[in-house]
Amino acid sequence: MASVLITGTSSGIGLATALAFGRAGHKVSATMRNPSRAPELAQITAKEKLPITISAMDVDADASVKQGIDRISKEGGPIDVLVNNAGIERTGSVEELSLAEFRSVMETNYFGAIRCIQAVLPTMRQRRSGCIINVASIAGRIANSPLAPYTASKFALEALSESLAQEAKPFNVRVAIVEPGIIDTQWPGASRHRRPLHLTHSNAASPRCSRRR
Fold first, then answer.
1. 3-209, what's its fold?
2. Between the N and C ends of the chain, which has fewer C-beta atoms within 10 Å?
3. Of the residues 21, 110, 150, 155, which is catalytic?
4. What is the pTM assigned to this prediction?
């Protein structure tokens, strides 16, 4: 039985991943920014009596990640598997979107993953055991308008993952990238940040990127 930490479990892939690990008998620490706003995982966990513990953690904040992972490790022991799933998007043209919006996406999708990696990797390295799974996207391989902030963050996450895999291999820590395509799920990060465009865009060239994880 492994101890698994998953970020961004309020819905979609994160929620499904938490349930899959929990139903397989693994001890799951499912984190999200505001558990009270996303009760579905807690309801299923209680109904099925799954080994899933839900807690608040904001991957955008250094203190929240440190405190959250310290608490999880203290209560449940060393983390064997980290699944970096938390993510948001911004939709709009490069010309229109502000730098603040680009930075917001990078803060969650890229720097958020780094925060969690840096928090768990020292222990994994010392134990010479562990696995880090970064949930990227097909958009991390094929850029698609009007999703420049999102695709840029996923390209960056994939580059980070490839470098990290080389660093971690001598310590028997595995690094994996997951690249989902179109997923039929309601993603709060997508709907919350979508805004109307004033320019004309076309997604016809790469329809697989029209919806993400």
1. Rossmann fold (3.40.50)
2. N
3. 150
4. 0.85
